[in-house]
Amino acid sequence: MSHPNIAILWVSLTSCERHKAWLSDLQAFPHVRLACQPHLPDNLDPYQVVITAQDGYSPAEVKRLTEFASRRGHGWLVWTEAPQAPLPQICGVQLQTLDTPTELRVLFDQPETPLAARLDEAIYVAGTRQTLNIIDSQTNIVMYADWRYTHQAVLTQRPVGSGAIATTTLQDTGHPVVRKVLYRLMRQMAGEQPLPREMGAALLGYAPSVGRLHGLGLMETQGFILRAACDLDPSRRAQFQTDFPGVTIYPQAEALAADDSVDLVIVTTPPNTHARLSSQMIAAGKHVVCEKPLALNTHETAAMADSARQHRRLLCCHQNRRFDADYLAIERAVNNDLIGDLFYLETFVGGFQHPCGYWHSHTPICGGTTYDWGAHYLDWIVALMPETVHTVRCTRHQRVWHDVTNADQERIQIRFAHGGEAEFLHSDIAAARKPKWYLLGTGGAIVGHWQEVCIHRPDPVHYYDTHAIPITEMTPRLTAYCRDTEGRIYARDLPAPRPSPFAFHRNLADHIHLGEPLAAPLADSMRVVAILEAASRSAANGGSPEVIDG
Question: For a designed S-S bond to 320, which of 112, 140, 339, 504 qualifies (C-beta 3.0 to 4.6 A apart)?
């Protein structure tokens, strides 16, 4: 999507390296132009926001920065890196050092502020031991920390002319919410609308499971309004009206495409229709989120991407498993170098049970066995191992279930250009399951074991009944194996974050409305289809290696 450009200047002698990861992320935004300078340059005209992290400020610097910030669509963010001198009076605040360095619980002073859209009520911030004392009545508290039953400001904003000056003691730029707040603050100071209008959304296809998930996700996410749905099946249209009364329902895609109140369409139809229906909605001026897999082959994904570029519309894939707790824990461990350089990765899903009789088990419609769960598991692989894919091999077995066209088992092996390897196995004839995760790095390993959980409920006739939670929905038990300085291997539990409901839809709204990055960019979903297509060719050729470009 296209977002207005923001030009930001970071001025600091010492802080660039410590905040390198955050600044690199900021620089990766296509609409953000970031420059880093050790001193304030003579010409500030190219910029809309200036961030300064200095030990002190000369009167001349304060005057120049105040004049800069006073213009409409401009702002000055004062970053307090434990300066030796007092802050400029124009900030409207002065520093106060807390008694003890500690983690702080930080909240928004006004929860309804646009800066807080779709964020948790409170965050826990490390490395902060300073707060801000308000010395000017025009200064507003944006965020505060709970400190011994008092509210201590950690982010403030003061109007200056037609612009603003903000001051913060928040230093934990490794925290994802701190990054979001600072980006949103700079976007706001650059003159962008604080909270764009809500976007009308619709569902194309209403399967009882995924359709209801998307409907609830849209209704629960600030920035979206569920306007309509479309399905060929009368019973599903009736179910939608029961689940979401009062929302428009259409029997044909053409009628949905003509609805001007709909800006965004989520395509939840079978995979062999994804390319055609997504392109139809894009041509009608709609942004499109497509269920996984994005399409059945690279010809289709390329045409979909070309259509989105031509019509300047968003196209992305519903990769909601990027927000699974086990994946997030593993991603964090890999990024934090817990197991060194990741060079080998295996993932598995399956069991020993009869496949369903629905289209999920019919290759011409779904693409094949690995196109279902594999669309998620391969997405994890390309995210954790973002190297160029060199070769793909795939083998299949059809030995037990002959009433479906999908294979009983498929194994995809990926070789990356720099030597890394990954494997995905989906088996419906696995009487004993392999671990869900098996990662090897140059400094350790991670194993994720499935957890089988049954719930027992009272029953007046049979005393109790038993309900098994689908194994794919339970967070696996993650164990990291690390090597100490004496060469001994020790095991430790790898904690997983608490699941966050409708995280995909919140990320989608943040991207559409605020220009924040998608957790799963379109390019990754296109790579997944390229791997699946190469795997299909390999299996058809007896497991021969297929070379692809990535």
Answer: 504
Cβ neighbours of residue 462 closer than 8 Å, sequence gap 6 or more: none
Neighbours of 268 (CB within 10 A): 24
Angstrom distance (rounded) from CA 329 to CA 331? 5
Handedness of CA 283, 288, 291, 294 (dihedral sign): positive
Give the C-alpha separation, 66 to 47, whole Å.
Answer: 14
Nearest 5°: the CA angle 519, 525, 530 is 155
Residue positions counted in the chain = 550
The candidate with the shortest Cα–Cα distance to 258, out of 285, 234, 279, 277, is 285
Measure CA 415 to chain center: 26
The neighbouring-strand residues paired with 76 are 50, 165
- Cα 234 to Cα 408: distance, rounded to the nearest angstrom: 33
Number of other CB atoms surrounding residue 456 within 10 Å: 10
Q: DSSP secondary structure string, 435-491?
A: PSEEEEETTEEEEEE----EEEEEETTTEEEEEEPPGGGSPPEEEEEEE-TTS-EEE
End-to-end CA distance of the chain: 24
Q: Which residues pair with 255 in a beta bridge?
A: none
DSSP element (H, E) containing 213: helix 210-220
> Per-residue pLDDT tens for 469-498?
899 999 999 999 999 888 899 999 999 998
pLDDT in tens, 72-128: 999 999 988 766 688 999 999 999 887 778 889 999 999 999 999 999 999 999 877
Q: Is the peptide bond before 59 cis (omega within 30 degrees of 0)?
A: no
Which two three-digit tokens encode residue 101? 């360095």
- The Cα 215–Cα 67 span in angstroms is 48
